[in-house]
Design brief:
Helices cover 71% and strands 0% of the residues. By secondary structure, it is mostly helical. The chain folds into two domains: 35 residues, no CATH class; 195 residues. Helix 6 packs antiparallel against helix 8. It starts with 5 loop residues before the first helix and ends with a helix.
Length: 242
């Protein structure tokens, strides 16, 4: 395996059996080194988030919130505000999924800045997984909000006689959303990471720091865009007036 990260090497050296058991569930044959960088980095990001909130939970205080609590309260208010704006007055119902998606993607984007790690969102299958989760979620929420028949009516269009034309268009539009989300996140993170690495290899000081700052901005922007588009899809799916 080329460019194997140190954490991936540990997984492959000591947890190869577990990795082969996992890939065996999807019918793939066992290999000597089953763990890929993007998989171990996602596990690391998930572990960091879990530990972070496990440490925060017992420190929550209404009267005297700490700095960490205040920071995450700002994040929550931001996500909640976006949900209210994009989805409507019931937006709070969807904050948990959208906020989790935002934090997970943001951490995956930013971890590539740390030496010895790389952003798992540079691998197409990672954004694709997030996009598929979004696709399944907003369709499920639409069915639960309106019922299967009424939600299916979204695909028919405003007037019944246009159904033969509108149904294929709507299906193609919905199927294109995961592809759009995947390409947008992957392309931006891959390009940003490669540009930063190239300048770090050419110039040792100052210039790489500028591109690392740009990488942080792109990471924040792409996580935000992914979240907002998810909210827009949810909002369209649960809107009763449709």
């Amino acid at each position: 395996m080329g460019n194997e990260l140190w954490i991936t090497r540990i997984f492959n050296d000591y947890l190869a059996g577990l990795g082969n058991a996992a890939i065996g569930l999807i019918g793939r044959p066992a290999v000597a080194r089953p763990w890929a960088n993007f998989v171990t980095m996602q596990i690391l990001v998930a572990a960091i988030i879990i530990v972070l909130f496990a440490l925060l939970r017992p420190r929550l205080n209404v009267q005297k919130p700490g700095r960490l609590q205040q920071f995450w309260e700002l994040i929550y208010e931001f996500v909640h505000g976006q949900a209210d704006e994009q989805i409507g007055h019931d937006g709070v119902k969807y904050v948990a999924f959208c906020g989790t998606l935002f934090i997970f993607i943001l951490f995956m984007n930013l971890i590539g800045i740390v030496p010895g790690f790389e952003s798992p969102t540079m691998t197409p299958s990672v954004p694709a997984g997030c996009a598929i989760a979004t696709f399944l979620y907003y369709n499920l929420m639409g069915v639960l909000a309106s019922g299967p028949l009424k939600y299916a009516g979204h695909f028919v269009g405003p007037v019944p006689f246009m159904a033969p034309l509108m149904i294929p268009i709507e299906i193609a539009s919905h199927l294109g959303r995961p592809l759009s989300l995947t390409i947008r996140l992957f392309a931006n993170m891959f390009a940003g990471e490669k540009v930063t690495m190239v300048f770090m290899s050419l110039v040792a000081l100052v210039v790489p720091a500028l591109f690392m700052g740009l990488h942080v901005f792109v990471s924040l922007l792409q996580a935000y865009v992914f979240m907002v588009l998810t909210m827009m899809y949810v909002g369209a799916g649960v809107a009763h007036e449709h």
